[in-house]
Input
Amino acid sequence: MERMTVDQLLKLTGGKSSGGACIKRKNKYHAVKVGGYDSRKEYHRAQQLKLKLKLGLISDLREQVSYLLIPSQTNDKGIKERPVRYIADFVYIDNATGETVVEDTKGVRTSEYIIKRKLMLLVHHITIKEV
Output
């Protein structure tokens, strides 16, 4: 299927706006958002972790935790570069071991994710648990 720009779509519709209707963009990897989560897999993992929390197997469950990997910088031309962050799906303490677990629910391991995973290990000494 050919991708169309907004200008191309406006030409097709006679240059008029669709009256507030928006075109829903499909996820690149066909993930479907469920219950406020980015995918079914992430939603189901959240339900599992919430059950473990109730059972006392884990504690301090947090979602969408941001880690700074590379701070913002200014290049030699004075242009500011934005920082690079990794956002973990879940962070919790495993009560059996006392360890903090940083977890990512993965369907597709993109090259961007792999670089961020390696930076997490280098910068924060954290190995991401992939589910």
Summary: The first strand starts at residue 58 and ends at 70. The beta strands are 58-70, 73-74, 80-81, 84-94, 100-104, 129-130.
